[in-house]
Amino acid sequence: MVVKITAGRHVLKAKLDDSAASRALWGKLPLTLPMSNLYGREMCFHFGPGGLPANEAKDQGYKVGDLSYWPPRGSLVILYKQNGEVFNHQTLGHINGDVSFFDKMDEADVTFEKAS
Question: Is there a contact between 44 and 35 (Cβ–Cβ < 8 Å)?
Fold first, then answer.
């Protein structure tokens, strides 16, 4: 499952993992989400608790470019900068490309759609 992600003039592609949460996200596409910059490392949108299945969430680190789900607030997260934190989340997939431009955005409408 490959997702096209558009934020302003930036276009990226992410490959989703084969998990219940990733398949649930895939089933919701296309989506345009108002994402906010949090903690100087991530762009985030809150679906609300239960937004995606989270049966595979665990305490773990992350890689720059990971697309993750944070269960407590039902948050879809694009991780664009590393700070070494370990937190409870479920990795949904990984974005191939430079995501550092998110550091300059406070908020952005980000579109997720199935790539052809």
Answer: yes
